[in-house]
Amino acid sequence: MSQDPTRSLPMAGATNFRDLGGYVGQHGRAVKWRRIFRSDHLAGLTATDQALLAELGVTRAIDFRGKAEGAAHAYAIPGVAYHPLVIEPTVVQRALELQATGRTLTAQDAVGLMQQTYRGFVHENAPRFAELFRLLLASDAPTVFHCTAGKDRTGFAAALILLALGVPRDTVMQDYLLTNNLYRRPAGMGSHAPEEVLAVLWRVQEEFLDAALHMVDQDYGGVQTYLVEVLGVDAAAQRQLAGLYLQAAA
Question: Where is the signal peptide (predicted)?
């Protein structure tokens, strides 16, 4: 294991940039390193960061941010094709709606809001995740996908990719929770809310991803059916995905 590449990559302008490689998927085959990366947004990347992207061979960036988020922190990276797959953020809006009723938000309120958001990914945002798979199947060119913090929209996308490659759920959850070790909240963000609420909104918890995966299980009978019937990733596409992104059998 000591010879494996590093999972987290040292970017000055992004704190949550990491590789999905190395996790063991179907038939004991590991996910290839340096093919699929997940990150927080890329608008703050320095020239050195962009040189590292080029060194990694990254030629595609998939951006899940909402329209206002993308406009506020737009970016263009030479040699990297930009693919916006817009998923509008809903947590802040729902939090503001609750506050408008005169209610003081609690950490438990925030957990509920986050779970609601993740359940929304499963149905309302399925077309964007389907397009993510279409892009991954079109080419195995090194790709980074991201949202603003690289934790929720990106976290669910990473979970779907890893599960489609046969990575066990407990390993998928471990990858998801790595955000809490890496991501650094920007200074001054969300000062309108109590710190206990911000501590929930800017981190990840098992309950968040579980809310989405439980909905997939409940509404579709499992990830496999969801991949096939909702995201259009049928058995042939899954074999192709494995061929592109899993190492050859030993």
Answer: none
